[in-house]
Specification:
single chain; alpha/beta; Rossmann fold; Dihydrodipicolinate Reductase, domain 2; nine-stranded mixed sheet; six-stranded parallel sheet; 10 helices; globular
Length: 350
């Protein structure tokens, strides 16, 4: 674009601290200029040069701000993104996009009218293990894939006090939180399913928001199972893939999240590299030869999301995470809720 791109960050909770601010700072063309914090100046502890304002209106009045990044609770995404687009800003929304697919479509139409980009931070497209699975499938190392299973499991047997994600309400619960990641990854690999079957539960004592789900996405000759839960003390495989020629099993999670929580950045050497003990195991036939062994995990690269945003803003690349894809993820969540309530498989209608 020929000039520094100024970014305004709305909110400074865990999503902003871990998944946005350090990645914005790691991209040379981007400058984190302003942060909206309602009650503190916490962002200045790590980023002393940023300006802190109390209200999004103050941020939007700043003509120097090019991009607004929204990291507030899910139910606020629509309103804040709409205000930002109307103010003539490009917009990045932390996943999930919105609380409904209708809200998402309104924002897509508005962004088009304003001539601005709106995108959703589906950063898990740049998990190293997912990039590795994608490469395996592109090279058809399992033959024709017949079953794909993806987990995002955790263990915490209590409800965190005052955590909005764990209270019943618009856009809360594990299906919106972690399910949006798994659904987006499935979309990248396989496109849109024809039907959805879902089992969504509240398993922890005192819980009011869903904390466990199993989704089956139906494709021609392919079964896709997506699972997440908060009461999984013994780790399950992250990925289980079966094809006509072989299988791939992968344990462990991408190391980038923990590294970011510890204060590391993508500017460091060997960023996103996974230790050998977490590499996946491939058993297959390759050109008539039996193969069994570990496959090195490709390095993860969350910063690629913001690098692509810069290139898309300047017309040098297509936007990697199109808002229509993020809208369709929300629609699949809506269909999953319907499936669970009606105890049946539902067709995917758009």
């Amino acid at each position: 674009m020929g000039k520094e791109i100024n970014v305004g960050l709305v909110g400074y909770g865990s999503a902003a601290r871990v998944f946005h601010a350090p990645l914005i700072q790691a991209v040379p063309e981007l400058r984190l200029k302003t942060v909206v914090e309602r009650h503190s100046n916490e962002s200045q502890t790590r980023y002393p040069d940023v300006e802190v304002v109390r209200h999004i209106e103050t941020l939007l009045e700043d003509s120097a701000i090019d991009v607004v990044v929204i990291t507030t609770p899910n139910a606020s995404h629509f309103d804040l993104a709409q205000k930002s687009l109307l103010a003539g800003k490009h917009v990045v929304v932390e996943k999930p996009f919105t609380a409904s697919s209708k809200q998402a479509q309104v924002l897509i139409k508005l962004a088009r009218q304003q001539g601005k980009i709106i995108s959703v931070n589906h950063n898990r497209r740049w998990d190293g293990d997912f990039l590795t699975v994608k490469r395996l499938l592109e090279n058809k190392l399992l033959g024709r894939l017949v079953e794909y299973e993806s987990h995002f499991d955790r263990f915490r047997n209590y409800i965190r006090p005052n955590a909005w994600k764990e209270k019943s309400g618009e856009g809360s619960g594990i299906l919106f939180d972690l399910g949006s990641h798994l659904i987006d990854q499935a979309q990248v690999l396989f496109g849109l399913p024809s039907m959805v079957t879902a089992d969504i539960r509240v398993q922890r004592d005192g819980g009011s928001a869903d904390d466990n789900f199993e989704l089956i996405l139906h494709y021609d000759q392919l079964k896709v199972t997506l699972k997440a839960g908060m009461l999984v003390r013994e780790p399950c495989p992250r990925f289980i893939l079966h094809g006509t020629e072989g299988s791939f099993i992968k344990y462990g999670y991408d190391p980038q999240e923990n590294a970011l929580k510890q204060g590391h950045t993508p500017l460091e050497v060997d960023w996103g590299t996974e230790p050998k003990e977490h590499w996946g195991n491939l058993i297959t036939q390759i050109q008539g030869l039996h193969f069994e062994g570990h496959i090195e995990t490709l390095p993860g690269c969350y910063q690629a999301y913001y690098e692509n945003l810069v290139h898309a803003m300047s017309g040098r690349a297509e936007l990697a995470v199109e808002p229509e894809e993020a809208r369709d993820t929300i629609r699949i969540i809506e269909l999953a809720v319907q499936s669970n309530e009606e105890k049946r498989t539902v067709p995917c209608t758009w």
